């Protein structure tokens, strides 16, 4: 596993391997309730969500939040998300796909914008940590792009992973942006935070299942 030049997948976590859409919507609406904002539906969330996340709030409330407002919103969201996530599971078939990709002699890693100290024990708790060469969560402030994190992630795998044969699988347009920045390619999955229409604007393959995403990754990295 991890031989130089082999196909490599960088998996996203929230909304991709981890099916936490209900937790995200629940936490978003719980935070909105505390702030006196109206709740939103999953369809509204998917059509409006974007990175950097303060821009998402601008679309919802008609202006960018102040730094103080953003810190408050972000803190409330993460507090409620921690309460909701315990009811969530891996996306259907994810564990089998991870095992299959590994057994085929390919490598994979995990990069998430979920805080690193929370991510690692969560991944470990699902018994899938050993499938990954590396598991990286966010360090530093929340709400920004994954691009610089992706560059650092692949640099840390230098010598075992070739960016040109690396495919990022995620549920957000920002995953495609991050892949391009790092010299990799991307496949986007419709089961998470973005609508299909918004994902298609990224100009990369868009699929409806993780199995299709892995098939595309195999084709792209061949």
- CATH topology (fold) name of the largest domain: Rossmann fold
Radius of gyration, rounded? 17 Å
Q: What is the CATH architecture term of the largest domain?
A: 3-Layer(aba) Sandwich
The structure class reads: alpha/beta
Distance between the ends = 16 Å
Shape: globular
The overall strand count is 8
Uncertain runs are none
The CATH superfamily of the largest domain is known as HAD superfamily/HAD-like
Mean pLDDT: 92
- Main beta sheet: strand number and arrangement? 6 strands, parallel
Portion in beta strands = 5-15%
Widest β-sheet, arrangement of strands: 5-4-1-6-7-8
Total number of domains: 2
CATH class of the largest domain: Alpha Beta
Number of helices: 10
Binned, the helix content reads: 40-55%
Description:
With 222 residues, this protein is an alpha/beta fold. It starts with 7 loop residues before the first strand and ends with a helix. The protein is globular, with a radius of gyration of 17 Å. Helix content is 48%, strand content 15%.
Provide the descriptors you would attach to this structure in a database record.
Rossmann fold; six-stranded parallel β-sheet; 2 domains; 10 helices; DNA polymerase, domain 1; single chain; alpha/beta; two-stranded antiparallel sheet; globular; 15% strand; 8 strands; 222 residues
